[in-house]
Amino acid sequence: MNFYRFAPKLLLLLAMTGFAALAQDATPSAEKPAAPTPAATSTQTAAPQNADQPPMPASTPDSATHVMGFENVKRNAKGKFAVDDKSLKFGTSSIDLASIQDIFTGSESRQTGGTALMITKMAIPYGGGRVLSLFSHEKVDNITIDYTDSNGGLHSAIFMMPMGQAENLKKQLVSKGAKTTVPVVETKADATKEKK
Fold first, then answer.
1. Which of 37, 80, 151, 181 has the greatest CB tally within 10 Å of its CB?
2. pTM of the model
3. CA 196, CA 192: separation in Å to the nearest integer?
4. Average pLDDT for the chain
């Protein structure tokens, strides 16, 4: 029996099965719930694009997606940071800046598109799905904040932010009194502002 004779039909069957599953997951517009109130949107969770990755944060300033670790905030919750003289707030939770022990920043590339893109890549013959993967990546920043709670327990909160915002948040926190073992990276734009 020749496998190559049945391979295109198998790929077509897999693609159709995947798209049928996606169509069943989608809710019709008549059954969609009412829009949430503004107070609920800051910690509302969104359906993840992929089980391994949290949803992308909005590209507005101080916006982020909580990956894990911040007390009383659900995983993958989207919200905004607010920094005042004594605390860091995300959604409805806050921590004292004096309790922050360390701040780490980094950036990574992540694949977008979720399940639909994954099925489409499988359906493209002759390895064409790999080419599609080259164009479906975006860069994000992540920030990890190590802090102690009121009982002295050490916690680490991880947030994902749009590219270029993690270092700015770190600078803002350090300027207000948070501690860090890794020095703040100075960007070229900041260096030119200081020279003028």
1. 80
2. 0.59
3. 7
4. 73
Q: How many CB atoms lie within 10 A of CB 63?
A: 17
Q: From its phi and psi, is residue 75 left (phi > 0), alpha (psi between -120 and 50) or beta?
A: beta
115 contact partners, CB below 8 Å, separation of at least 6? 18, 22, 49, 50
Q: Where is 189: in which H helix or E strand?
A: helix 188-195
Contact 148, 98 (CB under 8 A): no
pLDDT tens digits, one per residue of 59-115: 567 789 999 999 889 998 999 999 999 999 998 899 999 999 999 999 877 667 767
CATH of the domain spanning 3-25+49-184: 2.30.29.30
Q: Which two tokens stand for residue 147?
A: 């802090």
Higher per-residue pLDDT: 50 or 42: 50
Residue 36 vs residues 25, 60, 81, 140, 170: alpha-carbon distances, Å: 21, 20, 20, 27, 31
Strand 87-90 and strand 77-83: the pairing is antiparallel
18: part of which helix (H) or strand (E)? Answer: helix 3-25
Tell me the pLDDT band of 186, cut-offs 50, 70 and 90: confident
Residue 181 is given by DSSP the state S
Handedness of CA 123, 128, 130, 134 (dihedral sign): negative
> Residues with Cβ < 8 Å from 125, sequence gap 6 or more?
8, 11
| Phi, then psi, of 25 in degrees rounded to 5 | -75, -30
